[in-house]
Amino acid sequence: MVAYRIDRRSGVATYLQIVQQTKQALRLGLLEPGDKLPTAREVVEATAINPNTVLKAYRELEREGLVEARRGLGTFVRKTLGSAPADSPLRGELADWAARARAAGLERDDVTALFTSVLEQLYEGDDS
Length: 128
Known about the structure:
The protein is mainly alpha-helical. The chain has helices at residues 14-27, 40-47, 51-63, 89-103, 108-122, and strands spanning 67-70, 74-77. It has 2 domains: 14-77, Winged helix-like DNA-binding domain superfamily/Winged helix DNA-binding domain (Arc Repressor Mutant, subunit A, Orthogonal Bundle), CATH 1.10.10; 89-122, no CATH class. InterPro entries: Tscrpt_reg_HTH_GntR (IPR000524), WH-like_DNA-bd_sf (IPR036388), WH_DNA-bd_sf (IPR036390).
């Protein structure tokens, strides 16, 4: 099951953070078709956000065809995204790189900016 973490200082709408974190879990294989998402009540208890915010996020995921709500049962994953399993050797290499960046004194935002700039350069003109 996915555990949502809400960053109120990020500037990203709370419901979008839930959508993004769910998609990340789908890409990493942490959520698979048939898995049940936490109930709105469980998310509210864990994050202290409004239940309508959770429901809005789940509706967005449903609109995108990633999950389906089953009346009285909950919300379930319909399909997965990507092919980057959490146990990929690349994850270990990336973790090592991130640890070196942190040891070199880079802050989280610095690492994010550096990584994003490399991605933009590598995937320039790519629609994926």
